[in-house]
Specification:
5-stranded parallel beta sheet; 23 strands; binds glycine; 425 residues; alpha+beta; binds adenosine monophosphate
């Protein structure tokens, strides 16, 4: 069966790498893909938002399955458009994708379904938001742009001035464009974080292994938010009982709520959670695989990914089994210095082959490009250096040993991925 993956990041590279191991995959394409993906798939320079050309490509190349990696094409209805042409699509419909694309919609679904989440207010008027902050004496809070902002639209504020500044940037300076027309101001929660991803086939929910992402750019979880600077799985911050509780109290009611509104959810649903003293609470939903959580998850997944995806689309997840390597996997992102702010691209990258030669290491490409024979940086997040090991400490040691081999100018990475897990162990 011919398969096309839409996207060009580390998540898509990990999905392509895993799919390549399936005997049922015929030709594998990536639109547009990246130089790492090109090692196992044919990359075609069609952008993820160019729906007309994607549809034409799918038709002309007898693609039986399209996997949509990123949120933007999902939110804009690519899954609906391709499904309407009779193509199997892995990824939810536009109406389901609102769970990620509109944080206030997600809050309303959660409120209706009594899903535990932070208390929140929403504002479309900057003045009203600022007044709310000032008159309520809200110092500690979290300010979020409600639309899609590549993981950067959230500011955790400890003082009134931080909150006012965040509102100014989002609503007055419009740094996220229309994604910031509405802000959500919510209660600051505390506790360890985790990412729970599940395959959802319309009725069955199949929880994946728990993962943890590290969103702030610097060590000690400091600095501005990024798309994610590293991740690992499984995470000991969650025990089996809590996973069952999250499935029962979060996934089931949210999917019920959507179904009641006539929304049939199929694909991956991702809940970002904080394990507070009062139990797990939802920070956000994503309607797709996480990046970088997917990199260590795919390294551990033993089941044929194609089978799981087809079962998800066809509503027969109960017929497949998810098997995982029991060993933990961990990924560290090598980012361009300056990210999530301005950064340079076009810097030569070396050492990937040496890193992978260590064994049990895979370097997934996030933001890379080819200039002639040279591999160069082409994004904020550049590489996802991923390793598997007998323990989380061993996986981490291996990932950092691999990172030592990799080089490009102004490379920045966190040195403390999985610090919570290591401290517990
Ligand atoms: P989000 O994109 O909504 O998951 O937010 C990005 C990051 O901001 C999360 O991973 C948390 O570290 C932090 N965050 C978001 N919401 C809250 C909250 N209500 N309380 C504390 N931290 C939060
Ligand atoms: N790692 C968080 C995300 O994919 O949005």
């Amino acid at each position: 069966m011919n398969v096309a993956i839409i996207g060009s990041g580390g998540r898509e590279h990990a999905i392509a790498w895993k799919l390549k191991q399936s005997p049922q995959v015929g030709k594998l394409y990536a639109l547009p893909g990246n130089p790492g993906i090109a090692e196992g798939a044919e990359c075609v320079p069609i952008g993820v938002m160019d729906f007309a050309r994607i549809e034409q490509f799918v038709r002309e190349n007898e693609i039986a399955l399209v996997i949509i990696g990123p949120e933007d094409p999902l939110a804009a209805g690519l899954a609906d458009q391709l499904s309407a042409r009779g193509v199997k699509v892995f990824g939810p419909s536009k109406s389901a994708a609102r769970l990620e694309a509109d944080k206030w919609f997600a809050k309303e679904v959660m409120r209706q379904q009594a899903v535990p989440t932070a208390e929140a207010r929403s504002f479309t008027d900057a003045k009203a938001a600022e007044e709310y902050i000032r008159t309520r004496g809200v110092g500690r809070c979290v300010v979020k742009a409600t639309g899609l902002a590549k993981g950067k639209g959230v500011t955790v504020c400890y003082r009134e001035s931080d909150a006012l500044e965040a509102i100014g940037r989002i609503m007055r300076d419009k740094v996220f464009g229309s994604a910031g027309e509405r802000v959500v101001i919510e209660e600051m929660l505390s506790g360890p974080e985790c990412s729970m991803l599940a395959f959802v086939d319309g009725s069955n929910i199949y929880m994946m292994e728990p993962a943890q992402d590290h969103k702030p750019v610097d060590d000690g979880d400091t600095g501005p938010m990024t798309g994610g600077m590293g991740a690992y799985t499984p995470t000991p911050v969650l025990d089996d009982r809590t996973i069952v509780q999250i499935e029962r109290d979060v996934f089931v009611p949210v999917l019920d709520g959507l179904r009641r509104d006539g929304i049939d959810y199929r694909g991956v649903l991702y809940a970002g959670l904080m394990l507070t003293a009062a139990g797990p609470k939802v920070l956000e939903f994503n309607v797709r695989f996480g990046d970088p959580e997917t990199q260590p998850l795919m390294m551990r997944l033993q089941t044929d990914l194609l089978e799981v995806m087809l079962a998800t689309i066809d509503g027969r997840l109960d017929q497949v089994e998810l098997r995982w390597d029991r060993r933990p996997a961990l990924c560290v992102i090598a980012a361009s210095g300056g990210y999530p702010g301005a950064y340079q691209t076009g810097q030569e990258i070396t050492g990937i082959a040496d890193a992978e030669a260590l064994g049990d290491v895979k370097v997934f490409h996030s933001g890379t490009a080819r200039r002639g024979d040279t591999l160069v940086t082409d994004g904020g997040r550049v590489l996802a250096v991923t390793a598997i090991g007998d323990t989380i400490a061993a996986a981490r040691k291996r990932a950092y040993a691999a990172m030592d081999k990799v080089h490009f100018n102004n490379m920045h990475y966190r040195r403390d991925i999985a610090h919570q897990a290591i401290r517990r162990a």
